[in-house]
Amino acid sequence: MKRCIIVGAGDYFGIPIELTEEDYIIAADAGYTNLKKSGIHPDLLVGDFDSMHIDGVAGTTGPVKDLDIFEDAEKADYIHHLRKLKVDGIETKVIDPVKNDPDMMACVRLGLDQGFTEFHIIGGTGKRIDHSIANLQILGFLASRGCRGYVYNEFQIITAIHNESMKFPAEMKGYFSALAISDRCRGVTEKGLKYIVNDVELQNTMPTGISNEFVGTEAEISVKDGTLLLIYDQMKVHKFSCCK
Asked: Is pTM beyond 0.90 here?
């Protein structure tokens, strides 16, 4: 399956997955600087360029507008009317810095518009905890639309499932946590892990679900109603299967 790889300006530890020629790589603003460290040429550069200066781009939008931040939040038709230019020969789309979406969300919307259903977000965590949390919300946004997203930090992977199950192979090791991102997650079941969980309800105001463990058998997590964040240790093998 073709994947959309988005690299942001957060903490960067290289590309944790093996890239293929079919992968579509988007640099989110100063994520381009991170990609340069790995010698990777993105297919698209997107941003308002508040964190990476481009001559003639940043600061050209005029005075702050009277903006309703929820106006057109779902449709987000702005992605079809972005200013286009070339930076280092790379197709570039410029976002107005007075906007609803952070750069990462704009990149996701552009990927969805091209038909991608699997997204890998690298450089999406770090010193800006607000941006880190926003990127986890993006995982919930994708899961609720039948897509799959992954956020990587140095040691862990975070994804989300919505009204579905996810299986992990027996070779998985380390900790596994499941946290509610929707108000309530009903019918949560965890099988094949150190602690067996059967048809419970998790809430996003309680940190229940931290630090289960893989034990060398195939594991499965499922939720009947709601959106769960799944956090687990990185492995070189990335073989997971999901079903509604």
From this structure: no
